[in-house]
Amino acid sequence: MEKKDHILYDKSGNPSKEPAWIFRTYAGHTNAKESNELFRKNLSKGQTGLSIAFDLPTQCGYSSDHSIARPEIGKVGVPINTLEDFRILFDQIPIEEMNTSMTINGTSMWLLSLYVALAEERGEDVSKLQGTTQNDIIKEYLARGTYIFPPEHSIRVIVDMYEYCLKKIPKWNPSNICSYHLQEAGATPVQELAFALATAMAILDAIKERNCFTHEEFEQCVGRISFFVNAGIRFIEEMCKMRSFTEMWDEITAKQYDVKSEKFRRFRYGVQVNSLGLTEEQPENNAWRILIEALGVTLSKDARCRALQLPAWNEALSLPRPWDQQWSLRLQQVLAYETDLLEYPDLFEGSKVVESKVKELIENANKEIQKIKEMGGAIRAIDNGYMKSQLVKSQAERLAKINNNELVIVGKNKWKEGIPSPLTNDPDGGIFKVDPKSAEQTLKVLAEVKAKRDPKRAAESLARLEEDAKNGKNLMYASIECAKALVSTGEWADVLRKVFGEYRPATGVEGQKLNLETEKVAIVRSKVEKFLKDTGARPKIVVGKPGLDGHSNGAEMIAVSAKHAGFDVIYSGIRLTPEDIVQSAVEENANVIGVSILSGSHIELAEQIFQELKHYKAEIPVVFGGIIPASDFETLKKIGVKAIFTPKDYDLMDVMEKIIDILSKAPVAA
Amino acid sequence: MKFRPEELKELIRDAAEGEKFPLAKLITELEKPNSFEFRKLLFDTLEKSDFSGNSSLTVGLTGTPGAGKSSLLGEFSTEFLKRFPEKKMAVVAVDPSSHISGGSFLGDRTRLSLPTREKRIYFRSQPSQLELGGVNPYTYHVIRLLRCFFDFVFVETVGIGQNEIEVSKLADLSFLVMVPLGGDQIQFMKSGIMEVPDAFILNKCDEEALAKASYHTLTHTLEFLRDLSPGGSVPPVFMTSVKTKRGISDLLEYIVSEKPGDKREEETLLQIRKWVKNEYGNFGTRILSEIRFPKNANYETCETLAETEIGKRFKDGSAIRTE
């Protein structure tokens, strides 16, 4: 029988259909009990893997009873303190049958240790566990912020996990290489390729330096590397980027690391499509954006994703509801099962257009990789601030283009008039709100565990962890013992903080310029000059990111814009307490404090900020920006916040004008 | 003028007790142009209240971007607060300004982890109003004020070249912060900056071999320079690392054991000369050299006298005849 080019054949020569990719939903919040219920519902709906989001205290290595954790418990993910929380989280879920993806980085080792401890406690065969710990610490320094320790110690922890998994859990992927978050922070496709692959090479170099693997074992480690990639609205370019990744990774692994097995050289990736481009204005358009973005990673068979995770249409407004997540899941199911997408060989094989585009992306990415290599590799390029400043620069350029209308965003800077969206007419305003009482449940469980555990066993396991950390031993074993001894997340992290220290990276804003010279810029600058003339000093703004959220894009763009407008800007990066921010403002006698919050903790943090201002008897105006639902505006105004900016306030100079107007009206405190 | 004398006294009292916001307000007034009237009232009031600042040590820190001055100061302050509970320190960090919009990033806080609500430490950024690091016109007055309330005042600037000399003239003790890289030594030798500091700090000494090699290169260079100027001594070189906490204690001991210099009067005259040159040019400078200032006069007294004298010469036309 003659074979046809448009038919996909299996190994026996029969027409076939490729299996669908793994459908994932990024889920988990409130507390372990409610997350468990959500997981079981999603599994029954046809979801085939678990993708777990953890709250910020868990990601940053704090137990829920720490003061810095209090406003953040359960806000953007599930809080996990001890093994008891994992027992609750995975209750009635057969973890040995699951493919579990954990979005966890700084505390990856701890969460994997809890998972292993749970499996052993249940009498499961640990070697059968499947899944991934995200564990890409390098992108945390650049784009997401949930690092804890300095780079060299973080890498050591990652290599410990590779060593442990190779021996004990061969099907577990100890780390992803994430370019998803880089694109969310403004990375271009070339930067996404270069930075992700440079990161992968840094991990592989560290594994090689460990010098405890045979070459065959090393090849298995390479085969365990999987990537977590982004895909934006330019879906043809994104598809080409995926093909570029495939080709480059194959070449890197073959030539640089001498991997002989073709299977281990295959570029394996999961993807979450772009959220940065989702709008708060006309949010219903986001549903189409998400679909188009999904095409970028599904159209090409040779570069198709292994797992796909779609954001919800309303993510620019707040946390998605279960219904919104279901809607995203249905999109995947329709695409995979109702269309003929999976019935064809690669649609783009032999395309001159695609080949040319791929070639260009590869050339440019290789140039960028070479530049990073000359600096000494990805870790060095992080320490010297290069990679971070490149991302801030790309994001500034993107925002300038949106402001200049060079980049069309439907509903945002073009076709702005329209009928209000009925999707946000529900009583809850189309968003999810965490029940404040859910945190009490978490704290109650933690208190009970601490009261009932064997304190001697807990102390001994922590002492062993500290000793192993100092002596360079593989920390997985001590961590698993800590898990079984019912040690808490914060206790585990504090021991390692003590040994490794805590890290503060470059912010990336120094030296940035904004290519934005519109009429509005001139207007704002003239207002700033008037302020200078009237008061004798330039307006001074402290830009602060309180709490544990590390998404610093918005704060960085405001800092760069304020400088561009003529403000003196004080910006100290992420992981500040409200006390830190207010102290900066007080010592500098700032004219305004700009606070950036994306974690849903804006009300609690606002209260803390104003309490601190009261302590200093300082009446400095405060403005807020971030993901803040309109239904909370009134509450924030009552607390004292002067203005609130959300993603719809994308016009940077509009924001600066509103701020300088506030300052010009206020009686200027001397 | 914004404050009544009673209000000013209250601010001074609060600042002396370590309250940050009153102190911040006083500094803001000093940072404004045409601050003469305020300064006169402020420093007169301070003198009457026995806040002379004469026992305060001023320490200058300068070096290239990336030398790690801020992190070093952060680690230093932690050690300082722990070991000297009765002492207070302040930091003034001078940042480059943008010449296009005039705005600037005051970024040194990024690398510092300062304790909150601690009354014994105060940190203040200010733009340099110059393209490269240097000291702006009002930094001197801010330092004068901080000396009244703090045992140690650290002035941190960034840059390379002529501007660094300004810091050393304001400081009782000045440091050049370098990192273990050969290229920097060569640059610094050419710029002539090597002869300015009282001491050197080789920071980021995390890698032993590189640090030692750089240390020896630097000390040999300094010995060479000493031989070129008879009577000089080789300045100390401290090897530090925030990462490994190396050398912080030694640096702390060295700084704490230093005494403030007796060159306040000389410093005042130097600053007056600088101001006169900016305001009146060579004409003013010539007249200034003929003025005899009262002994131990403060800056505002000297400024008043200089302005009066220059105004007088200008009015009676004698200066024109001289030209």
UniProtKB/TrEMBL annotation, chain A:
It comes from the Bacteria. Residues 538-666 form the B12-binding domain. InterPro entries: Acid_CoA_mut_C, Cbl-dep_enz_cat, Cobalamin-bd, Cobalamin-bd_sf, MeMalonylCoA_mutase_a/b_cat, MMCoA_mutase_a_cat. Keywords: Cobalamin, Cobalt, Isomerase, Metal-binding. GO terms for molecular function: cobalamin binding; metal ion binding; methylmalonyl-CoA mutase activity. Its cofactor is adenosylcob(III)alamin. Gene3D superfamilies: Cobalamin-binding domain, Methylmalonyl-CoA mutase. Belongs to the methylmalonyl-CoA mutase family. PANTHER family: COENZYME B12-DEPENDENT MUTASE, METHYLMALONYL-COA MUTASE, MITOCHONDRIAL-RELATED. This is Protein meaA. It comes from Leptospira fletcheri. The lineage of its organism: Bacteria, Pseudomonadati, Spirochaetota, Spirochaetia, Leptospirales.
